[in-house]
Amino acid sequence: MKGISIKSQEEIELMREAGRILAITHEELRKALKPGMSTYDIDRLGEEVIRSYGCEPSFLNYQGYPASICVSVNEEVVHGIPSKDRILKDGDIVSLDAGVIYKGYHSDSARTYGIGETTDLAKYLMEATKQCFFEGMQAARAGNHVRDIGIAIESYADECGLGVVIDLVGHGVGKNLHEEPEVPNFATRRRGPKLKAGMTIAIEPMITLGDYDVRWLDDGWTVVTADRSLAAHYENTILITDSDPEILSRRME
């Protein structure tokens, strides 16, 4: 990380296109999900879609990560490694985190989906996690500080009786997948950097049905809830503007 970058209009347009392609990738993955599908199959499809648009997957070989899509099931919070042996079952929830590189610029987003018929509690978690993102985004305004985003996310999660993972955070996005500033999902002691128009950041609440505590598995990547409670993840790359923030990782109508 080499400081916070303010993106030019040309850079923003490139990130919009990266985000559009990433949104299409998520749509194709969502439509394909079903019981009996392996997490490896999800990864293969995701990479195929990304490359079909002339893009590269942001995650493949990033710091040694061996796949294009992070596929995290049930108590897995993030960075699950796809496997031919991990088969989705009816009632599972699965978080898909993906990134796209378009002409040198990244977009990063995540979604959590139910497989078949999930429990009401799982549905509640997924909807609340999505809303946590939107609560955080509303605080992502020029003149506010990074801490304001975390306050908004944590406050909503607390209202819902849910846990907020504190060992993992959002981040800046641009020429690099991870740039400054870090964007925590909780109230930090320091205010953090002031948000300015032209900043592009990934807001990504990781929320659990239980405690905030997490553990890393022996593969060095997969993060799970310490109490094995269900976890959900919802993320978008957004642009800070002089008015409302803009989601870049979406399809333009």
TrEMBL record:
Family annotation (NCBIfam families): met_pdase_I
Biological process, per Gene Ontology: proteolysis
Keywords attached to this entry: Aminopeptidase, Hydrolase, Metal-binding, Protease
Role this protein plays: Removes the N-terminal methionine from nascent proteins. The N-terminal methionine is often cleaved when the second residue in the primary sequence is small and uncharged (Met-Ala-, Cys, Gly, Pro, Ser, Thr, or Val). Requires deformylation of the N(alpha)-formylated initiator methionine before it can be hydrolyzed.
EC numbers for this chain: 3.4.11.18
Cofactor: Co(2+); Zn(2+); Mn(2+); Fe(2+)
Textual note on the cofactor: Binds 2 divalent metal cations per subunit. Has a high-affinity and a low affinity metal-binding site. The true nature of the physiological cofactor is under debate. The enzyme is active with cobalt, zinc, manganese or divalent iron ions. Most likely, methionine aminopeptidases function as mononuclear Fe(2+)-metalloproteases under physiological conditions, and the catalytically relevant metal-binding site has been assigned to the histidine-containing high-affinity site.
Reaction it catalyzes: Release of N-terminal amino acids, preferentially methionine, from peptides and arylamides
Name by which UniProt lists this protein: Methionine aminopeptidase
Top-level division of the source organism's lineage: Bacteria
Protein species of origin: Coprococcus eutactus
Amino acids binding a divalent metal cation 2: 108, 171, 204, 235
Gene: map
